[in-house]
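Sequence in, structure out.
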Amino acid sequence: MLIEIDFNSDEAIYLQLSNQIIMGIASSRLQSGDPLPSVRQLADTIGINMHTVNKAYALLRQEGYIQMDRRKGAVISVDVDRMKALERMKEEFRVLIARGLCKNVDREEVHELIDEIYDEYA
């Protein structure tokens, strides 16, 4: 699993980590049932604090992307609650579209961006 952290980014490291794991699932590089490295192992590999990895794993568990097993550790386990996922996406899109409108981004540009990003995972 290749994780790239931008230490100069304004985005928190735990969010970068959790987002990269989510993108790995979306692109099928990570499959349901795949184990993730232990907290200590991933922290050592990336060169970050164990508490940061723990926070990312906790967020992923809370959002239904992984399960924690005492024997296996963190395992990819995608929650299939589709309606909940759609509702969350809708809320996130509201903010993103509002930001775009403030910068004069039109409907066609938004659709092109969504299609482009969706095609990256399909």
